[in-house]
Amino acid sequence: MQIAIIGTGYVGLVSGVCLSEFGHDVVCIDKATSKIDRLNNGEVPIYEPGLEEMIARNVAAGRLHFTTELAGPVADADVVFIAVGTPSRKSDGHADLSYVYSATREVAEVLRGFTVLVTKSTVPVGTGDHLERIIGEVNPDADVAVVSNPEFLREGAAIADFMAPDRVVVGSNDDRAKAVMAEVYGPLDSERHPVVFTSRRTAELTKYAANAFLALKLAYINEIADLCEEVGANVQDVSLGMGLDSRIGRKFLNAGPGYGGSCFPKDTLALVKTAQDHNKPIRLIETIVGINETRKRAMARKVERAVGGDVRGKTIGILGLTFKPDTDDVRESPALSIVQALLDKGALLQAYDPEGMETARELMPEIDYRDDAESVAHGADALVIITEWEEFRVLDFPKLKDLMNAPVLVDLRNIYSPAHVADHGFVYESVGRSDRYR
Ligand SMILES: NC(=O)c1ccc[n+]([C@@H]2O[C@H](COP(=O)([O-])OP(=O)(O)OC[C@H]3O[C@@H](n4cnc5c(N)ncnc54)[C@H](O)[C@@H]3O)[C@@H](O)[C@H]2O)c1
Fold first, then answer.
1. How many whole angstroms from 114 Cα to the centroid of ligand 1?
2. DSSP string, 124-179
């Protein structure tokens, strides 16, 4: 199949590369010239494990191309995927569809022959109908079917998620489009990686329903964690005891500083707005949006407690800035809120993240950025683990203790056992693990 992908970000690039790995002929298009230049020079503009090798392999095989020019590849394509951003609209929290609309207009102008236009971007229910209207206005003769194919990949595990997905959801009522999409995903083993065909509106809503449910699980275990701290229980054991029940499942039950990232915050908010607009408010999700927002900032109070009540003038070392490990993405990372709250309280901050510092520097210029965990510990009154990068799981406590002004560790990801850290003479705070009544 000839495939054009519009938007070469976290989703567009991974999708394009993986579709070329399936054997399709893929052109990835982006307006950001610097991104395309880097890709054409063999560089990868994002950090995603395994991506660089896969790009090199498919470029060498002549199946994968990068360009800023949309017209030619779209005219030649059997399938055009739109994978541009759909951030929260600043004014009201709805999904901002301006990038999707403008990409659709550009596509509509140059369509040639029957083409399937697929929204891979996360878009509110009914967006596909609107895209059809746009195409009808721009190019009434276009022979096109608009399909919804939301993406469920996770940054950090994106290649495995795309190549071996739990499921692929395709929303369309058009038989020709369904046949084309079946061919696009033909290389997947249909038993283990089913392609679920639904109506377009159903597919659009499925993505939001899934993300909001995962956010709900996280918000729930976080509130249970707070209760654990109060009543002397251990949230990790509660989570294990709950999660081993196959009806519940163990994933997304790790208590922490609140969910972040480029999807959950904006998608929960967009679902709330959509439901309100249809006069069917989803109170559960409205509630967790608020809970999560206050939680992130509240984590700064844990740090205050750990250093004796006041962080003013104290040096706090931050380990991890990205919203999760194995990505360079800091969008809506809990670190942003925690750092801001600590700055507001008068703390001095020094930080390290294995992949996220380049973007973090632009968003948080007040931080003193360091090269590793040890230089962050140097002179610090406390260390705070915000992201559970693998290298933070093997900290050299004796060395850190020597370097720090005071041996205090706030572990917002519960990656250490309290006893282990205490054995090294550290004051230790974590999330939802109280041994008060042990
Ligand atoms: N990041 C994730 O983990 C993830 C997972 C599932 C779904 N999604 C959804 O996928 C969509 C894309 O997310 P992302 O994280 O990849 O975004 P991103 O910001 O990383 O990438 C979007 C890209 O689109 C480009 N772009 C915008 N308008 C364009 C146009 N008219 N023509 C060409 N290029 C254009 C931008 O320059 C940018 O490179 C969003 O709707 C998001 O909700 C993201």
1. 25
2. -TTHHHHHHHHHHHH-TT--EEEEE------TTSHHHHHHS-S-EEEE---HHHHH
